[in-house]
Amino acid sequence: MENRDEIGRVKIHFLAPFGGKDNWEIEISIHRGDTVRDIFQRLPQPLYEEIYRKVLQPEHARYGVALNGTMIPPEELSTRPLRGGEKISLLARLVGG
Amino acid sequence: MKMEGYAGKILYVNVSGPGGNLAVRTEPLDATILRRLIGGRGYGAYLLYQLTTPATDPFHPENPIIFSTGPLTGTPLAGSKFVTITKSPLTGGLFLDSYSGGEVAGEIKFAGYDHIVIQGRAPRPSYLLIDDDRVELRDGSSLWGKTTLEAEAMLKKTLGPEYKIIVIGPAGENGVPFSCICTDYYHQSGRGGAGAVMGSKNLKALAIRGTRGISIADARGLAAFRAYLAERFRKSQYGELRVKYGTPYTTVSVSSIGVLPTRNFQQGTFEGIEKINCFSMKEKIWVSDHGCLGCVAPCMNFVRARKGRVRVVGPEYETIALLGSNVGVDDIERIAEFNELCDAHGLDTISTGNVIAFAMECYERGLIDRGATGGLDLRFGNADAVAEMIGQIAMRRGLGDLLADGVKKAAQRIGKGSSHFAIHVKGMEIPGYEPRGAFAMGLAYATATRGGCHRRAKPVEIPQDRFRYDNFGFEGNAAMVKKLQDAREPIHCGILCDALLRFCFEAEMKDVAQMYRLVVGWEDVSVPELSQLAERIYTLTRCFNVREGIRRKDDTLPPRLLYEPLPDGPGKGKIIGDETFNQMLSEYYHLRGWDPQTGIPTRETLKRLELLDLLSDWA
Question: What is the total count of domains within chain A?
Fold first, then answer.
């Protein structure tokens, strides 16, 4: 049954290895006031734990989160509210050409 | 002093020797300076310094082209490279070092040489055959005009597949100052125009075969160290991605932080990024992995181009950026085609993409018209026009002839304010990192010894637990850039693949010191010694450029990157500006021991770095 508080859906695109594979995405519904961190917590526990270990916990993470293609600072993961329709990307901060 | 790892000799060849004959001699390495310079970039820079003067034009027969290896080259340590060293025609004679992987590096050592120094000008198109001690100049007229791929195939058919080939394409023959040198079909010494220097010597190719081995001080210890590195690779954070996607993974990260050059550096993000990123490449055109000889982490990709009619290794990140987003093309298959065209013609993809993007902006701004383009609609995103321009540049036809001398000279000729958006440093076109989204990258470009180059330091997305710095300010940036530059020097003297060491092995200076202990037998080599070596080599190459007339005023950025705000990405609205830039530069000079007013290394610095006796004209 559809949640009455649901205001839309967002896509999470894994551009680095998460859950044992890379370049895959899932769609998830969001509620009013949800932040990026909130919707990460709604993912399956093993996946959330991996995100926590690689992205959320380290002070200087080697992986980052982009919102609609633009990297956002870690402190905004739990402050910036989502509106629905956003694309959230998790990626390795790997630069080497 | 122990000297394992080295072949022990320098081969000098003058292709226009007395009476038009080949003049060949060998000299032993100078053991008294070996540990101060090691090899590769270090020893090669010293040779170039000794063999040239400021009056030596890059295309003069006396300008040497030097193929240098180091003591680690050709050993079981993966990722052997050689470096081509010469005076760059692109930067007006500044120091040029350009690296290439593949199989040639080891073969030079197996033939018995640490360095091959070529001077003179052959009376007719030729190629140089080096078969251990046998050195011959052979007629190369049937190779002249051929693409790099055709010429290498012809030589291998004539001589045998065991010969390793260094070859130039039509662009090098035509004196394009950003023409490259190709090896093993798919590897390039890309930057700075070494291909044109070879062409000016009427030298189409070198064919090298060696049958000797390399003596290693502690072979058993080296095998154990290799196993240790392999374990490091398994645990490394980025190794898996590096091998699976290669450098194209960089498209993902740089686009998210807004430093992807787009439409001649007018933007830092590209709306078509998902069509040209590593995942698109893998899905649409990828055929198989490819790597250098013996590499444990092959990071290159064989891909299809021209609807599957040809295969090419690439495109690397820089090619995707400069011949993709920077020219507004969002088709990964067309980018692979541009890659193949550049490789075949012997053109550096970075400079080529940059000059075409510059011409596109000139066209869109009305500074050049259809008459100048020969009827070509040179708007951003026109892939057919890009393909056409690559051929025109290599063959010096039409507008291509104007662009073929590089973006700096093209802007001087077009005028009308176009130098504002001619994106180069000291004449070398800038690669795939927009510095307004990472200010330290601007300092790295301005202080790189060969011009606008990313291979000496790439301070983009450096974690703050490694360096504390302000991404959009000046604090911490000078120290970071200097340390990153210095970190590569002992590797570039070795010579091994710095990408492999950094991304896959996460190697540090102490690991490089251990390599020298095991291979050369320098039991007491230490991190402080290699740190000082790094400073020495960097300052040595600076001295070369100072002798060519480079001063503080030349260590700068193009006006667009210095004064225009970036319109998008996390750096939106940011301006580097004179004040921030000069703060970074002054601090950098202070850390290097270079005069803050002029940028010239001080006498005290030269003394501290034990350079005075090597630079006779500075004593």
Answer: 1
